[in-house]
Amino acid sequence: MEDIKKYMKEYGKKWRCENKEKDRERKKIWAKNHKESMSDNQKRYYLKNKKKVYARTITNRAIKTDDKCGICKGEENLKKHHWNYDKPLMVSTLCVDCHKAQHIPL
């Protein structure tokens, strides 16, 4: 059973990468048909992650993303990483891999 779940997860990930437009359309249709549940989910997320949402909002308005990752100097799939949500402007630009590495528990 565990192997099947792992396979399906990998298959879905691969499909989404290969069919970005179809996936985007599928998500739009889902959101259109599930407006009530989606807004409830969003409310729950915002209530649970107030500092994170606030920090993201401030950062998006105030800081332009750098062109390269601050660790490996990669130029693709860049994200903003908050080192401390109490200091929303303390942000680094990291690629997806380096960003994931920062969230690995010690």
Key descriptive features of the protein:
single chain; 106 residues; mainly alpha; two-stranded antiparallel ribbon; 61% helix
How many DSSP helices?
Answer: 5
Count every beta strand, where a strand is a DSSP E run of 2 or more residues. Answer: 2
- In the residues, how many domains can be counted? 2
Uncertain regions spanning at least 5 consecutive residues: none
How much β-strand is present in the residues? 5-15%
Q: Compute the gyration radius: what is it? A: 17 Å
**Strands of the largest sheet, in order across it?**
1-2
Rounded average pLDDT: 84
Distance between the termini: 30 Å
* Secondary-structure element order, N to C: HHHHEEH
Helical content, roughly?
A: 55-70%
Oligomer: single chain
Helix/strand class: mainly alpha
Topology:
Elements: H1 2-18, H2 20-33, H3 35-48, H4 50-62, E1 78-82, E2 91-95, H5 96-102
Antiparallel strand pairs: 1-2
Question: Would you write up a description of this structure?
Answer:
Helices cover 61% and strands 9% of the residues. The protein is built from five helices and two strands. A hairpin with an 8-residue loop joins strand 1 and strand 2. 6% of the residues are buried.
